[in-house]
Write a structure and sequence with these properties.
The chain has two domains: 168 residues, Enolase-like, domain 1 (2-Layer Sandwich), CATH 3.30.390; 223 residues, Enolase-like C-terminal domain (TIM Barrel), CATH 3.20.20.120. The chain is built from 15 helices and twelve strands. 40% of the residues lie in helices and 13% in strands. It is an alpha/beta fold.
């Protein structure tokens, strides 16, 4: 069990590294540094925050992008550009999915423009702690962090800006090796079981040897889907994700059967507020249980570990409010010796680059369900991020996120 003392030791060592690097991201005071103080000490301040809403064309079927008639087509995203008074620029991306969370393209745009930009302009861009505190003070927390997908775009852009200003990669910022390449997992969410083998073949032809499946609420369908997959790919890593779709009784009935078929891990079997159900499911020890939707902040993760609800976590930097809380959560998992899976929100290019940097630096041991390259078309990068022929993808190299935004491409894809 992870103690508060141990977690304080983890964060203290990280602060010492950052202070030595001359960055001081985690060691600064929790209070925001105002413009007058920053200018007086000859530090740069945030001069502008720009948001560009856009929609990436989609390929194939992914159930979370299906909506009622009249719903805008494509994968919504908001590109965030932050510039400081020294001319340093950082890029980030918020990636809302209304059928997965309560955040939308429209809510991200208005929240940044109306509520966050007026507060953050004039603050020290290197004070990530203060900026997160300012965002949380103006968009309040509920049970956990409020509008984390929106805030993640700001956080990623600041990480990019800070590292580019210092000429360092994200891995160097965290005191780690960059790692990579990252092995990818192919996502299956067939509408009919008869489609399964063709979908497996599509992934196989692109070099993928590991698969993740969307399951729940129908256990009979799910068991047959996993059986077909294991029959076709007996040696691949099989990760099932219920997205909280089972009720507790069904989950406890189906989990041993999924294990018997050969499923390696089950993500988010029931809704995250079913705490006693998670405790009972974990006691079964039939499959490793990873939480996803329920874990947003480091405090959530610490509490759920103490309540003995999980064996690990499916990480999504875009879900947890950005790279600062994401890295902290991975440090908690390391210290508690729990597993972490690398996942995403069908991330487009900029958010994908942030996830790859994180997973490479923290030495991800399992195939990552980063399915943006599988389901999305188009990009806003000078050099697109594409998987290799063997089902892996390289960690971007260079300062910051390691990618360069092509502003002409961005303008062409921008939505009014």
């Amino acid at each position: 069990m992870l103690s508060e003392r141990k977690w304080q030791a983890v964060t203290s060592s990280r602060r010492e590294f950052l202070a030595g690097a001359g960055v001081g991201l985690l060691g600064l005071a929790a209070l925001g540094i105002d413009r007058a103080s920053a200018l007086q000490e000859d530090r740069p301040v945030i001069e502008s925050i720009q948001v560009t809403p856009l929609r990436y064309p989609t390929i194939g079927r992914f159930k979370f992008f299906e909506g009622p008639p009249g719903t805008p087509e494509g994968r919504a995203a908001v590109v965030v550009r932050i510039e400081d008074s020294d001319g340093n620029v950082g890029w980030g991306q918020s990636v809302p999915i209304p059928k997965w969370s309560y955040e939308t393209l429209e809510s991200v745009v208005t929240t940044i423009r109306v509520y966050l930009e007026p507060v953050l302009v004039g603050m020290d861009p290197f004070d990530l702690e203060g900026i997160h505190d300012a965002m949380n003070a103006n968009i309040a927390n509920g049970f956990t962090t409020g509008q984390p997908i929106c805030k993640a775009g700001i956080d990623m852009a600041l990480h990019d800006l800070i590292c580019k200003a210092k000429g360092m990669s994200l891995a160097e910022l965290w005191g780690r090796d960059p790692g990579g390449p990252v092995t990818l997992s192919w996502t299956l969410n067939p509408k009919e079981l008869s489609e399964t083998e063709d979908l497996i073949q599509q992934g196989w032809e692109r070099g993928y040897r590991n698969f993740n499946v969307k399951v729940a609420p129908d256990p009979a369908y799910d068991l047959e889907l996993c059986r077909i997959l294991k029959e076709n790919v007996p040696d691949g890593f099989l990760w099932a994700d219920a997205n909280g779709g089972y009720d507790p009784i069904t989950a406890m009935e189906v989990i041993p059967k999924l294990a018997d078929i050969g499923v390696d891990v089950l993500e988010q079997p029931v809704h995250p507020n079913r705490i006693t159900a998670y405790q009972e499911i974990k006691k079964m020890s039939a499959l490793p249980i990873a939480m996803d939707e329920g874990v947003i902040s480091p405090a959530d993760l610490l509490e759920f570990i103490r309540l003995d609800m999980l064996d690990g976590m499916a990480m999504k930097p875009a879900r947890v409010g950005g790279l600062l809380p994401a890295a902290r959560q991975l440090e908690i998992l390391e210290d508690a010796e729990l597993l972490f899976l690398g996942s995403g929100l069908t991330d487009p290019d900029i958010s994908l680059a942030a996830s790859l940097a994180l997973y490479g630096a923290f030495d991800l041991q399992f195939p990552a369900a980063l399915n943006g390259p599988q389901f999305l078309d188009g990009d806003v990068l000078a050099q697109p991020l594409l998987p290799n022929d063997d089902g892996t993808i390289d960690v971007p190299e260079g300062p910051g996120l390691g990618v360069e935004v092509d502003e002409e491409k961005l303008a062409e894809m921008a939505e009014e």
